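quick one before i forget lol
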Amino acid sequence: MIRDRLEMIRRLLASDGSLWITIDDNEAHYLKVLCDEVLGRTNFVANVIWEKRFSPNSTAQFISDSHDHVLVYAKEKSLWKRNLLSRDEKQNQSYKNPDNDPRGPWTSGDLSARNSYSAGIYPITTPSGRVISGPPKGMYWRVSEKKFRELDLDGRIWWGKSGGNVPRLKRFLTDVMEGIVPQTIWQHEDVGNTQEAKKEVMAVVPSDADVFQTPKPERLLRRVLEIASNPGDLVLDSFGGSGTTGAVAHKMGRRWIMIELGEHCNTHIIPRLTKVIDGTDSGGITEAAGWKGGGGFRYYRLGPSLMEKDKWGNWIINKEYNPAMLSEALCKLEGFRYAPSDTVYWQHGHSTETDFIYVTTQKLTADQLHSLNEDVGSRRSLLVLCASFRGKAEQYPNLTVKKIPNHVLARCEWGHDDYSLQVENLPKALPKPGQIDMFDAEGVTQ
């Protein structure tokens, strides 16, 4: 199952997309080997360690498990570009301004390094007159003597308060405000833990819903999406679970798709996303993201495959489809609204007030088509999908007659890495006053 899922995800990924998988110690190393095989070892980006528990488990038989792995792969590593993490007060605490430098707060860094550098060995005289014969043993100054003098003249060398310390390079906060390079150790203080995640889920699902044993906190998903995506990007979670990915992606202005095979779609995901949209979910990253509600989602129930091959290798309609299921599926495929009439047998759905669809597995005769054409009349149109028909379709000006399954096969896309078939195009609901447009930073003020 996992191999098949990985192969499908690889095909669906954009060329500059990435895959993030959380996994525990029991399976992480086997999954790493499988991912290397399917996605390519050269496309491996990192193994992130997430601190999912912050206190030891007293009931652990051997060693208390405190972390999970997050395996990161790119579709094409040469094309993938990670985003920097936003800076916060915690990262800025080390920046001070003891010498009242007009360029603002700064921190100092070691001016020596281990990398061999022929121009990095020379004596330095401090402002206090102390002579430093050279860098520490086995080390080299990071810059040449000429560059060092330039940095000192520009006030970028810190000699200590007395002016006699080993020189250090000043790095100003204004020079690093763009962001922070992500690291592979993610502590629970920064991205949350399973206990936090359980509280988030319990707050937005019905009281009788089961709580996952290892849910993911919204802050963890926010970190992933902050690094790997931008507003408007499409995020896919093939194991929807409690709906955390969709909730976080929605709050961050990303488009999202979640897939869930169990009942969690009804018991967890729909109630949770409904509260996100209504603006009544005050937990998780809601405040940090400035989320006030808005947007919407569509819920699709996956039916059995519409087509199957018979014992001779010919494509036929799947036997699991009864007439009503077939009509509903073909209405969706053709862009019609499924609305079977109680009084008119050939009205299975409509796209407009005068355009209808009729689905049947019968073989229609010329007389039957003539009768249909008369019933439809000149002011209406009818798409007829049938097993086969006699006569010429152009003889019936009010009808468009096509065969099943040939027409269905013609509408399918085969052997593509990018399946772009649009089977339905529903109008978007307008956001309520005060809610946020999904792809507009400004609140709606209708």
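fyi Residues 295 and 438 are 6 Å apart (CA to CA).
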